[in-house]
Amino acid sequence: MYRLEISQTAHRQVRKLPASTRERINKAIAGLGDDPRPYGSRELTAGEGYRIRVGDYRVLYRVDDKSGTVTIYRVMGREDVYRG
User: Fold this and answer.
1) How confident is the model at residue 81 (pLDDT cuts 50, 70, 90)?
2) Which H or E run includes 6?
3) Cβ(10)–Cβ(74) below 8 Å
4) pLDDT, tens digit (0-9, with 9 covering 90-100), for 46-80
5) Kind of pairing between the strands at 69-77 and 57-64
6) For the chain, is the Cβ count within 10 Å smaller at the N or the C terminus?
7) What is the side-by-side order of every strand in the sheet holding 50-54?
8) Would you state the pLDDT for residue 80?
9) Is pTM, for the whole model, over 0.85?
10) According to the CATH classification, is domain 3-77 in 3.30.2310.20?
């Protein structure tokens, strides 16, 4: 079981989403506590962690296996999420 941490930025991004999308995103994030590398997750090429896909949205996160922590740092639409 991993502990979930959500950055202020990611929290703000989730709050701005429509209610139905927000529920799906929150459910996917909660699942990362049990399995931080679920089927369909991808390791980012820049070495910044992983991403999961939830519809047209992406959740970017880092996994620290030593401390048992998953840190969500960005939640955005797929067209914007990888931009600086």
Assistant:
1) low
2) strand 3-6
3) yes
4) 778 999 999 999 999 999 999 999 999 999 887 77
5) antiparallel
6) C
7) 3-6, 69-77, 57-64, 50-54, 42-43
8) 76
9) yes
10) yes
